[in-house]
Each structure stands twice: as structure tokens, then as C-alpha cells.
Amino acid sequence: MQLEQALPELLIKIADDELIIGHRNSEWTGLGPVMEEDIAFSSMAQDKIGHAWALYRILQEHFNGSDPDQFAFMREAADFKCCHLTEMPISSYDFSLMRHFLFDHAETVRYQSFSQSSFTPLQQLAAKIKGELKYHTLHADAWILQLCTAGAESRGRMQQALDNCFQLAGGIFEPGEAETLLIDEKVYPGEAALYQQWLNNISPVIEKAGLTIPAMTAPVYGGRKGQHTEHLQQLLNEMGEVFRLDPEATW
Amino acid sequence: MQTITTLQAVYNALDHVMDPEIPVLSVLELGMITDVKVDLEGVHVKMIPTFSACPAIDVIKENITNAVERELQMPAFVTVDKEVNWNSNRLTDTAKEKLRNYGIAPPGKHEGEVNLDMLIKVSCPHCGSENTYLRSPFGSALCRALHFCKECGMMFEQFKPLS
After folding, report:
1. In Å, how far is A39's CA from the nearest CA of chain B?
2. A150 and which of A51, A154, A169, B70 could share a cystine (Cβ 3.0–4.6 Å)?
3. How far is A157 from B122, CA to CA, in rounded Å?
4. Pairing mode, if any, of strands B155-159 and B33-38?
5. Searching chain A, which residue's CA lies closest to the CA of residue B88?
6. Do the Cβ atoms of A201 and A105 come closer than 8 Å?
């Protein structure tokens, strides 16, 4: 595979993760357990969708890709490269919070590595995004610690959420086909390196919270190859419902 | 001489373009303008958003175009500068003072990285007390966090420090 194919593959999977988790975050709008959390998940949704748009824009400008809106709303599930963690329904707040914690720490590690990338458009975007992500991890860490020290039931639910999310989170780091090429070309250090750094970053928070980190025995792969759960198509149907009424409309 | 006069006029026009979410600050005071050039085609303005997913960006671009075209009677071309990233040290001192008077705590100056203290130790813009706490890193706009003042019992917002 050439760099001209490897780079879009990398950009698409990261952007799709952002778009899909962004949409999931937005499903908390109006439903948050407290007002501040309603606002937080809505704000994070806005950030994620904005980041996805910026990545789709790089695809459009540098790889002859289609318009970001068309690309986001008109593809079928099999053309999406998001990991399964992002597509799962919001479930209860403990699940959504744990997903947000695991995902945003992964994003932080990823964008920190991208900020050294040899691919300039990605490097420039990452330098901006990594500062913004601090607020996401700050939010996640604070709530994880707070809920895990709020009594046995609360900590039990957070442990359950961690157990439910952990193999799914492993899927964020599903290796791509052109991994070696991207590493050799210094685009980024590859999924295995990011995974290790991610573990190093989340472990102190998880320990401080008094939770037990499960072994990564069966990371849920497939998303990067376009294999998805049934939840993704349902999400896409809802997300694109208005857009597809008139795909050429100007908003 | 002609060019200098024109450049000054462009900056004057930009000083009249207020941020839609913080109407007391102009795009210049917010540090959103990275370059201004005037040539035979017209006026070229490069700008940057505060937060990358800022939904107001298109409105701001349009407002800049309209202000420059109206005040200079020249075509204006506004583009987003990808080579420069906004960070909160770009806010001028006047801007910080205006923010405080508007009821929003300004961000402190950082040395390249934002540390946790900068988010947590924030003086109340209403009573000046430092007896406050961070209630949520997310507020009514992407660029703001929510704080609470234990002294005067008021909720207030902070313009987030960003590196």
C-alpha cells in the first residue's frame, strides 16, 4: 500500500470515531443526570463533531475526498471505520462516562503523537486539538474519581462499566493494514505504541479510583474493516434522516 | 503611504467586529486575526477560531467580510489560517479587563502548557474572592468553564485557558 492510500485510511478511522461518539454524546442533550453533565456531554459532542469535520476536510483537500457533509451523512455502515466502542448506545450514565474516560484518554495519546507527525495538515490540527482534549480528560477523571468514592453501589457500578467497556476500548487500537508504512514514514508511532501509552495514562486514575483494571483478553476488532454491530446502522439512519431529505440543500 | 493608511483602516474596521458570543470583545482583542494584506484584488484577512469546533466561525467570517467591505469599499477575502493556533495568551490585557467587567473571569497567562491550577484557582469576577471552585470544565460555550463563588454565592463563567 502507498502512503496516498494509507493516510486516508488513518484519517477516516479517526474521523469516524469522532463523528460517531460525538453523535452518541449528543444523545445526552436534555437527559443528563444533572444540568452540568447535560451541558458537558453536549459540549463534548460539539467538539468531537467539529474534529471529525476538520479531518474530513483534510481528506477533501489533500486526497480528493468528497464534501465533509456528504461523506459524513451519505455513507452506509460498511463504509464506516469507527470502532465498536463508539457505536454502542448510550445505555446508562455509568457506561457513557466510562466510555468517555477510556476514549478521551486514547484520543489524547493519539493527538499527542499526531502533533509530531510528518504529515503537516494532521500535525497542525493535532497541535490545536490536544490542548482542547485536556478539558475532556479533566472532566472524565474528576467524575470517575467522584463516583468511585461515593459508596459501594456507586463503585460497583463503575467497576461493571469498566468491565463492559474494556475489551471494546481495546478495539480503538485495532491495527491497520498499512501500519508499518505509517510508522516508517513517521506519520505516527502505530497502534501498539499508542495502546501502551494509553494504559500508562489511565492506570493511575483507575487505581486511585479503587477499580480493578481487567486483562485485555479479547479486544473487539472489526470496526476498522467496516464490520459493525447493528447499532451503527440505526444511528446512521437517525443521524442522516434530515440531511437525506435534500442532500444538496444549503444549511 | 497609501497602503499604511489602508491597513490602518482595515484594523479600524476589524475593531468594530464583535464576537457573537462575547459582544464586548472585538476579533482583534480576542487575538483572532493573524494577518492582513491589501493588494489590487482587495483586502485579505487571515483569522483563527478560539476553539477548533467553534460554531460561530462562519458568522464571524461573514461579519469581518461585511465590516471591511462596508468601511473600505473594497472586496474582502477572509480565510482561516491553519498555520497559527489560537491560545489564550493571545487575549490582550484590555480584553481581559473587558471580560471581567462583563462578568466572565479571564484566563491567566500560561507558559506554553495549561496546568490544573489555572483551571481551579480563579477569582470571582463579581466580588474578587478567590474562594471559588470549578464546577464543570464545560459551560454555555466551548470556550467557557463553570465556576462557583463560595463568598458571594454566585455561579460564574471563566474564559478557558488554552495552550
Report:
1. 7
2. A154
3. 33
4. unpaired
5. A131
6. yes
Asked if A148 contacts A82 with a C-beta cutoff of 8 angstroms, the reply is: no
- The strand pairing partners of B144, in sequence order, are B159
Cβ distance of A43 and B142 shorter than 8 Å: yes
Residues composing chain A: 251
What's the complex ipTM? 0.86
Cβ–Cβ < 8 Å for B130, B121? yes
Grid cell of B50 as nine digits: 478560539
**Closest in B53, B137, B162 to A46, CB measured:** B53
Residues of B in contact with A44 (CB under 8 A): 138
Interchain pair A138, B116: CB under 8 A: yes
- Name the helix (H) or strand (E) containing B104: strand B104-105
Which residues does chain A have within 8 Å of residue B59's beta carbon, measured at their own beta carbons? none
Query: Which H or E run contains B117?
Result: helix B116-120
Task: Report the residue of chain B nearest A37, measured CA to CA.
Answer: B136
Query: Where do runs of H (alpha helix) occur along chain A?
Result: 3-26, 35-63, 68-73, 84-87, 93-114, 120-148, 152-170, 179-184, 191-208, 230-239
Cα B144 from Cα B138, distance rounded (Å): 6
Å between B161 CA and nearest CA of chain A? 9
Q: pLDDT-derived band of residue B1, with 50, 70 and 90 as boundaries?
A: very low
A53 to chain B: which residues are within 8 Å by CB? 53
Banded pLDDT at B2 (limits 50, 70, 90): low
In which element (H, E) is residue B45 found?
strand B43-47
Distance from CA of B155 to the nearest CA of A (A): 12
pTM: 0.93
- In this prediction, the residues of chain A whose per-residue pLDDT falls under 70 are none
Chain B, nearest residue to A53 by Cα: B53
